[in-house]
Structures are given as C-alpha cells and as structure tokens.
Amino acid sequence: MASLTRAVARLATTTGRQAVRSIATTTPVSGHGDDVMEKWPADKFDNHFINYLSRPEIDGWEVRKALTELHDYDVIPDPKVVEAGLRACRRVNDFALAVRFLEAIKIKCGSQKNRDAIYGYIVKQVDPVLKELGIDTPEQLGYGEPEFFVPQPEYWWEKKWYKDYGFDKQPNFQY
C-alpha cells in the first residue's frame, strides 16, 4: 500500500513540474511590432505592391489577395501601382478583376468632385496601359451609371394601392 501511495505521489509531482515547466518556458516573441505598412513611406508602400504584383509566377489568388490588401488601406493607389495591378490581372487573364479593380479605385475616390479629379487623373495616366492590355474602363462598358428599373405600373401596380398609400392626395395625381 505504501508503494502505491509513493508511486502516485511521484507521478503527481513529476506531472506538475512538467506542466509548470512548459508554461514557464514559453516567451512572447514579437519581431514585427513597429513594421506596420500604414506607417511606411509612400515609396516603400508603392514598391511593395509593384514588386509583389510584377512577379512572373503570380497566380490569380495572389493577385486577388494583393488587390484586396491594397483596397483595405486608406489610400488611393498611385498610377504606377494601378498599372502593376492591371498588368497582373492581364497576366492571369482575369478581365473582370481588372474592371472591378478600376471600379474599386473609383469608389475609393469618394465624392463626385474627387472622382472627377482623382479618378480621371488615374485613368488618364494608365490609359496607354489600358489600351495595350485591351482593358476597358467601367465607363466604357456602360457600368459608369447604374441600371435603373423603369417600372410600368400598369403591369404590376394595382389601382387601389394609389389610395391605400395616399398617392391620390398628391397634387396633379392621375391614373
């Protein structure tokens, strides 16, 4: 009986020491705490994406990853980065991604005034590359304006609904 108690006690103490040792020996290691891309200078930031997108062995997934990462930052890319992105899209033969990339840049420009100035400048700068690669802008494809649904109420709107929704009280109302 005593040997059984001794064996259990020895097992408990060695297991406890191993658990404590494994916890005590782990140390946090951080090597990239101050290397945040948002704090990089503009040239380093641009060169990172240009070099990444200019690799000849890049595949479609990596192009999407890079363009998504670029879109996540609060910057509008320089025309040279846009050129690298368009060339990468063409290299993986993804026309739709190139058009969506241009559309995302247009949306990132913000207000209509900024879109006219900034997006117009970017498109003007990358126009030779667009022509060389055979890529159209969203405006050339007809995606610059939304497609509106023009209702024909006589087909789907019942006349009694005008009264239900108060349209009959509007000035110049007729049906």
TrEMBL record:
Cell compartments where the protein resides: Mitochondrion inner membrane
GO CC, any one term: respiratory chain complex IV
Gene3D superfamilies noted in UniProt: Cytochrome c oxidase, subunit Va/VI
Coiled-coil region(s): none
Pfam families: COX5A
UniProt GO molecular function: metal ion binding
Coarse class of the protein's main subcellular location: mitochondrion
Keywords assigned: Heme, Iron, Membrane, Metal-binding, Mitochondrion, Mitochondrion inner membrane, Transit peptide
Membrane topology: Peripheral membrane protein
GO biological-process terms attached to the record: mitochondrial electron transport, cytochrome c to oxygen
Pathway: Energy metabolism; oxidative phosphorylation
Function in brief: Component of the cytochrome c oxidase, the last enzyme in the mitochondrial electron transport chain which drives oxidative phosphorylation. The respiratory chain contains 3 multisubunit complexes succinate dehydrogenase (complex II, CII), ubiquinol-cytochrome c oxidoreductase (cytochrome b-c1 complex, complex III, CIII) and cytochrome c oxidase (complex IV, CIV), that cooperate to transfer electrons derived from NADH and succinate to molecular oxygen, creating an electrochemical gradient over the inner membrane that drives transmembrane transport and the ATP synthase.
Quaternary structure and partners: Component of the cytochrome c oxidase (complex IV, CIV), a multisubunit enzyme composed of a catalytic core of 3 subunits and several supernumerary subunits. The complex exists as a monomer or a dimer and forms supercomplexes (SCs) in the inner mitochondrial membrane with ubiquinol-cytochrome c oxidoreductase (cytochrome b-c1 complex, complex III, CIII).
Family, as annotated: Belongs to the cytochrome c oxidase subunit 5A family.
Name the UniProt record assigns to this protein: Cytochrome c oxidase subunit 5A, mitochondrial
Organism lineage string: Eukaryota, Metazoa, Ecdysozoa, Nematoda, Chromadorea
